[in-house]
Amino acid sequence: MVDELSELIIPTDEHSPGARAAKVAEYIDRRLAEPFGDEPKLQWREGLKLLDQISVEMNGRPFMQADQGQRVAVLTRMAGKESNPEKPEEKFFVELKSSVARAYYTSKIGIHNELEYKGNTYLREFAGVDVSKS
Q1: Does the structure show a pLDDT above 90 at 115?
Q2: pTM
């Protein structure tokens, strides 16, 4: 389920592979398996249960049995108050999205394909703005 959610948040497009190719779900799973307490694990379990409940309420079927459009509708509902989450499912969406983004943009695919980072390279001239002269 986390693999599917990740790909819905950062899908493959013409520019770069998506979260599935970057193995975002595996990264999140490894992070949750680290021995730093049970709270994060419980938060994710409860969040995924809420997501399934919302899917059943909206679509009459669990999230993974819903079609692509229905899955997107569930995420859209959960993201409705992303800037000021109040309900548990809204808070879980914020956690989900930030975890997916963190995992993706620290992966080789996220850094090199999406962001096109070339590494530390020598610049012949300074490309920024000299703020000391303002």
Answers
A1: no
A2: 0.81
